[in-house]
Amino acid sequence: ASPYEMILVERQGPAGLIRLNRPKALNALCDQLTAELADALAALDADPAVAAIILTGNEKAFAAGADIREMQDRAFPATYMKDFVAPWEAVLSVRKPVIAAVAGFALGGGCELAMMCDLILAADSARFGQPEINLGIIPGAGGSQRLTRAIGKSKAMEMVLTGRMMSAEEADRAGLVARVVPAAELIPEAVKMAEKIATLSPPAVAMAKEAVNAAFELPLREGVRLERRFFLSLFGTPDQKEGMAAFLEKRPAAFKG
Ligand code: CAA
């Protein structure tokens, strides 16, 4: 039996798939859901059979944000002392690639959770938004920062100031998502990505993820230095010898990690 009530965890080949599963509340991110999510992410990250993690919702919603019912009576300073957003950042500690597969609403904290993942694959039905301003608050899980870095100041400012939602197509044009696929192909496409990643060298994959994410944190010169150290250190792995030998011998590489 699953230890979880608000998420479903399954394996699809080398992918660990987490489905947010509170459909009646459009997967609103209440404390229990985020605690379960943090637990499942850590378990899949530790499972050697899992190459990548897919985080998804259902057809109607990835997640419609933090749980407004639960937040309504939160007060300061108690809410400051017990930061209810902090556990969401569990996704940032995962070392394997995390793919957000978004169909339907990704609003407020839902959009922010998707942006904490390494990449967003969007169904054509996806809608992204930061509507917190309509509630008398502002984004609180990185929306004002990650959305701005992803799509630029004017677009982010318009969304955060007015709460306007973006379609999947607009999100694609703005660079928020990696690709848009028909809704029926969302999970199969995400699993294909995980399957490809599973054939690659695990240390190279881990360093690639860390290096790209560092572009959000570091000044350019420091980011390039980090990349160079990772790049040169990979020449110490048997997988580098195997990958280059396989290329020159015109055969598929068999990476061992
Ligand atoms: N929290 C709690 N419950 C939510 C919810 C949320 N964020 N979003 C939707 N629900 C609930 C609704 O209350 C409703 O429950 P009942 O059936 O019990 O009334 C159910 O989900 C279905 O929602 P709707 O009837 O509203 O569905 P709709 O199709 O008419 O509208 C929607 C869909 C446009 C997404 C609308 O639900 C909506 O605007 N939701 C709120 C979005 C929002 O404001 N998100 C930001 C939250 S704040 C935040 O996230 C803070 C942060 O940055 C950390």
UniProtKB/TrEMBL annotation:
EC number(s) given by UniProt = 4.2.1.17
For this protein, the record's InterPro entries field holds: ClpP/crotonase-like_dom_sf, Enoyl-CoA_hyd/isom_CS, Enoyl-CoA_hydra/iso, Enoyl-CoA_hydra_C
Molecular function (GO) terms for this protein are: 3-hydroxyacyl-CoA dehydratase activity
Q: Does the keyword Amino-acid biosynthesis apply?
A: no
Keyword Ribonucleoprotein in annotation? no
Q: Which UniProt keywords apply?
A: Fatty acid metabolism, Lipid metabolism, Lyase
Q: Which PROSITE patterns match?
A: ENOYL_COA_HYDRATASE
Show the catalytic activity.
Answer: a 4-saturated-(3S)-3-hydroxyacyl-CoA = a (3E)-enoyl-CoA + H2O; a (3S)-3-hydroxyacyl-CoA = a (2E)-enoyl-CoA + H2O
Highest taxon, organism lineage: Bacteria
Q: Name one GO biological process term.
A: fatty acid beta-oxidation
Q: Which Pfam families match?
A: ECH_1
User: Enzyme class, one word?
Assistant: lyase
Where is coiled-coil annotated? none
Give the family, as the similarity comment puts it.
Belongs to the enoyl-CoA hydratase/isomerase family.
Biological role stated in the UniProt entry:
Could possibly oxidize fatty acids using specific components.
State what protein this is by name: enoyl-CoA hydratase
